[in-house]
């Protein structure tokens, strides 16, 4: 199937924005040399560079996919947009039963869309704007949340351009949540099963204008743009993600005035991506047309999608 480039699908009015990147040389020696977060007293990271340097790059063009959102394909673009008229207006304060009912409904939808054998949500989080905070306060909240893993508190909208998991980090994460039987059946047989991790992102309460989700076209990146960074996802577990280096050829997109009745699915990991996208780096950005707004709220689900490969 011929892939229609995102640049052709972006028909809305473009804007410009600032994004934050890791500021370091390329890191492709097979090691995770960077660590971001709080170290416990007994942790040893003698070969790690702690708290990697960041840089903010301004004036980056961001093209609008509004009007072509239903032409997006997870298979071709790493993005998929699904209408989702959901009657509950979820908040971080919502009853857990309401939140879990929403997760269950999304899981069913994803399983049907991708004809998957196994689908499960292993993490969810709410986010909201915290524009009034300084970067130091913001970073401290992120560190506290990483160590407590408390989902009853909303995270700040993310400032750092990233991918939620490296390939090694993705598989380690899934093995934490899958039974031994499931791991043997699905993860230990890559010749039979395709394993993907997708993020299902949706505004809550109202449409998002001021800090929408910026999406980096995988096909505009190169391997040197991806840098492994470790951090503690809890006091017991270390996660591994990609932080992105800036590259002037990178192409950014978003969907203007994203409403709660619209789901955005994007790829974080794919065990069998072939000629398609491997992942979608992403980050929120401050829309210049809405500089004083602070009402952005969203919920995101991290979902494992396991499909049997066609013979």
TrEMBL record:
It comes from the Eukaryota. InterPro entries: AsaB-like. One of its GO terms (molecular function) is oxidoreductase activity. Belongs to the asaB hydroxylase/desaturase family. PANTHER family: BLL6449 PROTEIN (PTHR34598), OXIDOREDUCTASE AN1597 (PTHR34598:SF3). This is CmcJ-like methyltransferase. It comes from Coniochaeta ligniaria NRRL 30616. The lineage of its organism: Eukaryota, Fungi, Dikarya, Ascomycota, Pezizomycotina.
